[in-house]
Amino acid sequence: MGTKTQPQQAKENERRIRANDKEFNLQYKYHNNYIKTSKYSVFTFLPFNLLEQFQRLANFYFLCLLVLQLIPAISSLTPVTTAIPLIGVLTLTAVKDAYDDIQRHLSDSQVNNRKSKTLRNGKLVDAKWSEVQVGDVIRLDNNQFVAADILLLTTSEPNGLCFIETAELDGETNLKAKQCLTETIELGDHHDALWNFNGEILCERPNNLLNKFDGTLIWRNQRFALDNEKILLRGCVLRNTQWCYGVVVFAGVDTKLMQNSGKTQFKSTGVDRLLNFIIIGIVLFLVSICALFAVGCAIWEGLIGQHFQAYLPWEHIIPKDYIPTGATVIGLLVFFSYAIVLNTVVPISLYVSVEVIRFIQSFLINWDEEMYYARTNTYAKARTTTLNEELGQIQYIFSDKTGTLTQNIMTFNKCSINGRTYGDVIDLRTGEPIEVTEQQTIFHNSPRNPEEVPTGTAASTSPSTSAKQPPLILVHKAEIHAKKSTVMVTAEGETQLASSPSSDRAEMEPPSLDSQRNPRGRKQVRYSAPSRSQEMEPGGTIPGGLSPTGYEKQRSSSRNSAGGLGVCFKRSGPGLMQRQLSSTSSSDKALQCVDFSANPHHESDFRWYDRTLLDAVRSDEEHSHVFFRLLALCHTVMAETVEGKLEYQAQSPDEAALVAAARNFGFVFRSRTPNSITIEVMGRMEEYELLNILDFNNVRKRMSVILRRGDSVVLYCKGADNVIYDRLHGGQEDLKARTQDHLNKFAGEGLRTLVLAERRLTEQYYKEWRTRQQEAALSMDSREERLNEIYEEIESDMQLVGVTAIEDKLQDGVPKAIANLQSAGIKIWVLTGDKQETAINIGYSCQLLSDELADVFIVDGNSVEEVEKQLRQFKESIKIYNRFRPGGTEALYNSDSNMDPLSVTMTQTSVFMHESSTPPTPPPPPAISVVTFRWDDKNKDNKGGPDSAECNDLFGDEKRSLDGGAASIVIDENTGFALVVNGHSLVHCLSPELEIKFLDIASQCKAVICCRVTPLQKALVVELIKRAKNAVTLAIGDGANDVSMIKAAHIGVGISGQEGLQAVLSSDYAIAQFRYLERLLLVHGRWSYYRMCKFLRYFFYKNFAFTLCHCWYSLFCGFSAQTVFDPMFISVYNLFYTSLPVLSLGIFEQDVSDKNSVEYPRLYTPGLKSELFNIREFIYSVLHGAFTSLVLFLIPYGVYKDGVSHNGYILSDHMTLGAVVATILIVDNTAQISLYTSYWTVVNHITIWGSLVWYFVLDYFYNYVIGGPYVGSLTQAIKDLTFWMTMLITVMVLVAPVLAYKYYLLDVHPSLSDKIRQKSLKKIHSRASSDVRRTPSSRRGRRSVRSGYAFAHQEGFGRLITSGKIMHKMPQDFAFPLGLGTKKTQALHNNLTSADQTKASNSSGHHMGNNNNTNQRHNQNQNHSSMADISAEGRVNGADAGGSGGTEDLSPRAPCQDLDTINL
Q1: Catalytically annotated residues
Q2: What would the mean pLDDT of 108-118 be, rounded to a whole number?
Q3: What distance in Å separates the CA atoms of residue 779 and residue 1044, rounded to the nearest whole number?
């Protein structure tokens, strides 16, 4: 009876839905589509919020105190003293919680009230999203959000396809294809048929797996399998599809979007947790003091007090028969009395003040104009008010990639064609590449004196031109070397580097090219735009004083071939180079985009600055034509015309960028059918027969197409460099070497590279290969391996065409932000769903990874054993590196060595160089190090510090000055390791048996990148670091797949600026760009932590100084719980007298400016170590407060005890003593906070000095107007000189030690902020630090031996194309008809179809081993003097026309196309 039947068990594990049957679906009580993220309603707010607030220990503690104060026998203070502050803090917190919940209500309402077209009673009606039910059939139009998780029934496309964008789910903007069942396509958009659709869906329970769905559709007594390709998820957007219909499967909280939202966790800061611990300690201390005083009171009453009952009668509840009993009861009551009197040591105002400070700091973040993003009109927003100081203690940042670090926009940046590189913009004077960013500014140029205009070159402007005031100037941000400058281009085409006004005159003089520098040490260059008159000066020199040989030699370090601003060089004699200008008119402007307007299909937003490539294309240069023809033909992009404009649908942004580049250069992809491709070349239409698509996948790492035009058959291929290079024919070594050098250069710049190659095929060879390919496709045994061999055969002996370099555009400022955050000591992990190559490439682009790293560990094992083995090997590598790393550099280069000033950087390579006279060292390591000497005029600190000239006094480094001759040894921070983990390996790394080893290695790595990770794995990684490292974490992302990670981290940051992003709704802070994270942490985070810590230290000091006076007085009042101060003073001390100054301190205080906070990232490190407020600092504040209270009480007590004024009045009364001590306490508080304040504002002056005045005003008002018991006490005291001398002596005694200690620290142990502040006070403008170790521009001249390959393509689109399923045309409209050819081909097709149907699921384990095991080439960075073009033989002119040339036996047309795209 206790066991369930099998059908019952199955029913619990499945979900049963019937379309258009509301009654059937209601019985299962499925969730509707209503979304609720709010916590309260109008009726539940008060009870639930109070219950939540009293769960905080402090609030409950003060509630208990309030109850005790209501008992007259034990309370010496009115309950109002506790009730008013408690009610205030509860009210303030309730208002804040209500505001937050109202915002959540508004967000929910906005989503729930969106409109969706729903089928009701056979008609489409506009229904709210919240009204959509499971089983409803809904219609989606183009560019509309999907309301719920739906099963796709029918679309406007002929084959049931639709395209969706999943930016809200994963941040990716590239389109993904979905396809409905062929059986439901017939429903079309006929509402009657759709209303009569009564299919029953059996599917899995709601879960958070975005890429998995299992289900079955039962319709017309048939069962159809359902998978993820037929499901559209809530949050997706329908793109490039006119309409589609679907039935709702999951709604509301059951949708996968909401399932991935994760559980909202209560977040508190580290300061909060420490504060709670301290409060518990203070309560225990309070209990101990009360117990001690209770014992003292019992003893005093038993020995002395019983004899004074006539003056101090015992309460009526005290037994008087037996003295010890009465004394014990009195002591017990005094225990509670002291608990009430001393409760101000933990005042409720502490929590009020903390909440106020956090609340205002949140608004300071919201109002920061430096974090305003004008493009989307978005400000930063603090969505929570309780975590601000945690921003100053972040130790780990976990970042998504797509949409967070990158814009998910690919741009065609550079290329190499036939051994010549294009795309660099070259400084004509220095030969260095100039990086032109998209940030441009317009400003007015001030008129210059005529004599300031350079006239030393042949291209100097005319007097009339130079004398008139230039018009508006277009400014391009450019970076030459690592120095940032501005290139100005006037309307006349003149170009110059702009700098500060103080160096304008120095700039105007044309410098020689051998590193002329101004007194400020900055390189100043001024040059004119190129013109035809600037060909050559007599003697074969280039204008500017540099010989052509020297000029070419200077350029060779950064590029091998000329290019850029229309400049190239050619040999005209032995050892003589001539400079030639490309055929551009003199009106062309330097640093202006190339004009593509002559091409009617050009894209207005396409940017290209190197005109020489367009000139080569227009002059019919053969190699450039082959290059762009390959790009226009070898892809899986679809073309369509929308409103008369040609638009592309690309499966990946990489392909879109390449095809768009070919389009702009005149090779326009126009249309395709399953067996043809049409392109337009320079206005001429060319149609190619598509014979085969050898599709891309992650093993092949390449894609090929085989085309026929006329009598020629050609194979075009693009792929990874190592894969293509191994398949090139011999005899092109020089071309391969030059192209490899370009590959290394592009990889060093962080660009994504693809190598292009072609092979001309004979008709006879292709026929034979095609026969073997079809046989391999039909084989039942080892089909995958045989097809791989066939593909390897034809993809060999190829001719190298060139290289494309695509930039996966980072968001502005990402490299600098990452470098600065790393300099601050924060570790950055990238967790992305992208594949490994893409993730690594972005790691190099944003400088998270660098070429100086000793090694990049890749964990890609498929089992626990493989992963453990890899981790063990990596651990050994780290041990070897740490053992032999040159850490003892002092032994090699001590301060006594006579070396010239230079910077020594330790990097990992294959050669070891040092003097033989060095001390004995351990055995040589397997991987040995090189000492490279870098000649710089300034040695950089590399950790966000200032230049070395400032390091001597700013950082306290014991470096000698430049004239001292000492060598400064710097081990580059970039050296070390990085870790890349694949998603399937991460599963094992997170297992209990391996997580310790994984953490051990990861913690020793400079950077960690996890790729192919699921949303759940992102959260698990964050939880692991939180748990194992006890570190403060921050997660930043922009998609729904980042929500669980954002909620798991201590701080969650969402990238805002786009509508409907789920990450922002779940975040604690929202910013528009990743670069603003730098300011959010280094400025606002550091300031918030600094202010909160300073506030807490002073707050505890002033309260212990105030409260412990009662303890000293208890020694003189028989431990009777008598208070020193007026009860009203006790009540309002924290509320009126001292609250505003300390609030101003917590809101406005700053040690250094925001600019210095960013320029010196190491200022952030105290927060990482919790140095500003911890147990030690708390104890120091307590001891300082105790010392202050002792001095405050004893000096006035000694003065006023038995004191008599000069006119005979007695001064030794209790009220006078209390008034004097209270006044001196307020004066001391004012003096202490004045010394404590580093940054004075008007508000600080008003609150600090105003509080002092306010004390006297309130005291007079209370005592004289209201009639307080202490009336006249202070008035009489201040009339006597004794009071003023007592106050002066007491305050001096209290302030003198503080001043002495403060100046001792400044003089002997100054902090970094102290040094920066001292330099600011001295008006020394220190230059900004080299906080970016290698800026993007400095990478431009580098070579990298790593591969820059990354391609975000996925397998499968080739099959969709060749099968015709993706086409908008019907088969009869195709240029090359889908005829089945001969009977032989028909039979072959039928056999293939049956074989394909019986084929088992795709097995990824059997692949050719030689695909991944390619030989490493060692020809990098070679100088090749021969610049002769290598002409390819057998190339056919693209304009030739010919017949299709088929045979009777074998038809090359569409029926066999599926053979080429079988999954590999």
Answers
A1: 400
A2: 89
A3: 47
